[in-house]
């Protein structure tokens, strides 16, 4: 079916249009991205879009009442153009899923990745194994707040402090923390954002020796290994990507040293890193006095995070 102006608005035709635009731009997941953008423009989820595709609906049959077909079509085509220019899908949508959270993201903040969910789970499993009822947890290099807010909303009574150096990123951290206020109240947890250098001994100095768990996803990409993917290279903030040295270990080493002071005896550091850095970071952790040092792997079987305990 077409609109009064002759514009095709049948859902299959619109998905095909989006797929063609995005394939021409070199996107491998062209159809997926087109479907996600169309569903978002119509104000529905992918399940509703699939139902509409199956039944041969037009856009005006799919869009929620607050999103008329003309508005939805305009947004869809505008977003297709932005995606064809390799703007990240999450920035266009304005949000992304992470574990149980729906996080606001946009220019200036690092988009949380699925592999970090495994890092968080490792920390949560340790808290459970220790039987900690009100764990004190620090999220160094907080970014969107994905790590610390996951802990605070999933662990009842958790007391979480998050540290972020970037002014731009901290805006998103605060926005996401505010959006989770009801979930935090339900869990009985607290979440405190601190603006500062996560490697500095003056930041959170009042918590030195009192922290049960530090979880960190610091910048760690080697300085001479610029990502080839445009969505990462051109859009993710450099401050959140690069580890400050040719091997990318300068900032992670700073996190290791700062965490050694923050953690109580028996406390644990869980820190994400590049798959090439496991051996070097284990050595740095041992030199800093940690014990039970090991490397955890992600779902792809790659070295992904450091585990190290303070004695």
From TrEMBL:
Q: Return the protein name.
A: Release factor glutamine methyltransferase
| Record CDD domains | AdoMet_MTases
Recorded hits in PROSITE patterns, A to Z, give: N6_MTASE
Q: Which GO terms describe its biological process?
A: methylation
- Looking at the record, the residues that make up the Release factor glutamine methyltransferase N-terminal domain are 14-94
Query: What catalytic activity does the UniProt entry give for this protein?
Result: L-glutaminyl-[peptide chain release factor] + S-adenosyl-L-methionine = N(5)-methyl-L-glutaminyl-[peptide chain release factor] + S-adenosyl-L-homocysteine + H(+)
- Record: residues binding S-adenosyl-L-methionine: 164, 217
Function, in words: Methylates the class 1 translation termination release factors RF1/PrfA and RF2/PrfB on the glutamine residue of the universally conserved GGQ motif.
Family note: Belongs to the protein N5-glutamine methyltransferase family. PrmC subfamily.
Task: Supply the alphabetized keyword list.
Answer: Methyltransferase, S-adenosyl-L-methionine, Transferase
Give the EC number.
2.1.1.297
The organism's lineage is: Bacteria, Bacillati, Actinomycetota, Actinomycetes, Bifidobacteriales
- The species this protein belongs to is Bifidobacterium [indicum] DSM 20214 = LMG 11587
């Amino acid at each position: 079916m077409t609109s009064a102006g002759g514009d095709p608005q049948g859902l299959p035709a619109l998905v095909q249009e989006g797929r063609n635009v995005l394939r021409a731009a070199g996107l491998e997941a062209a159809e997926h991205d087109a479907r996600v953008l169309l569903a978002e423009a119509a104000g529905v989820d992918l399940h509703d879009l699939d139902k509409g595709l199956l039944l041969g609906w037009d856009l005006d049959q799919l869009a929620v009442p607050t999103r008329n077909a003309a508005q939805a079509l305009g947004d869809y085509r505008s977003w297709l153009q932005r995606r064809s220019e390799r703007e990240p899908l999450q920035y266009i949508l304005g949000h992304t899923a992470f574990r149980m959270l729906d996080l606001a993201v946009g220019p200036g903040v690092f988009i949380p990745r699925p592999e970090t969910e495994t890092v968080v789970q490792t920390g949560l499993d340790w808290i459970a194994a220790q039987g900690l009822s009100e764990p004190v947890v620090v999220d160094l290099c907080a970014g969107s707040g994905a790590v610390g807010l996951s802990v605070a909303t999933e662990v009842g009574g958790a007391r979480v402090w998050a540290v972020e150096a970037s002014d731009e990123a901290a805006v998103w951290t605060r926005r996401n923390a505010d959006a989770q206020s009801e979930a935090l109240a339900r869990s009985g947890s607290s979440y405190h954002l601190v603006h500062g250098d996560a490697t500095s001994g003056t930041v959170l100095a009042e918590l030195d020796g009192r922290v049960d768990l530090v979880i960190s996803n610091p910048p760690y990409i080697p300085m001479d290994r610029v990502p080839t993917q445009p969505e990462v290279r051109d859009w993710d903030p450099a401050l959140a990507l690069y580890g400050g040295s040719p091997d990318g270990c300068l900032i992670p080493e700073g996190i290791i040293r700062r965490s050694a002071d923050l953690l109580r005896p028996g406390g644990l550091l869980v820190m994400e890193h590049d798959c090439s850095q496991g051996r070097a970071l284990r050595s740095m952790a041992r030199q800093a006095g940690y014990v039970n040092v090991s490397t955890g792997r992600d779902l792809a079987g790659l070295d992904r995070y450091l585990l190290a305990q303070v004695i």
